[in-house]
């Protein structure tokens, strides 16, 4: 990518916001199960191990929440996707070798519900990044090497 703040597509933003809400709910559920740390309860090793595992889970959840919040802030700072070269968030019309054209969105997160989304780390996504209208890109598919022409960015 560019090394600076990367734009965030609407689809990616929605997915991150949903994940963030789910993680916050999960974190609250795990936090409720932890003991307050004080008191005179004497538990066996299994209880202690379980509590340590829940504390580790809280740490993992907190880390992912922080990561998503940072990415959402970065996406807001980056502004709209570029229309001069393909970047994350760009909408790109490509013409494949068989003559068919397709408009795809370059995103960060795979979304099975959005057939037009191409992730930036997929073979086609990587090939398109940084290119402009009129450029021909080559990428690998399960059937072998393929080419596509960048028709337009929008």
UniProtKB/TrEMBL annotation:
Stretches assigned to the Transcription elongation factor GreA/GreB N-terminal domain: 7-74
Annotated Pfam families: GreA_GreB, GreA_GreB_N
Keywords: Kinase, Transcription, Transcription regulation, Transferase
UniProt-listed GO biological process terms: DNA-templated transcription elongation; regulation of DNA-templated transcription elongation
InterPro entries per the UniProt record, alphabetical: GreA/GreB_C_sf, Tscrpt_elong_fac_GreA/B_C, Tscrpt_elong_fac_GreA/B_fam, Tscrpt_elong_fac_GreA/B_N
Gene Ontology MF, one: DNA binding
UniProt domain Transcription elongation factor GreA/GreB C-terminal: residue ranges: 82-151
Name of the protein this chain belongs to: Nucleoside diphosphate kinase regulator
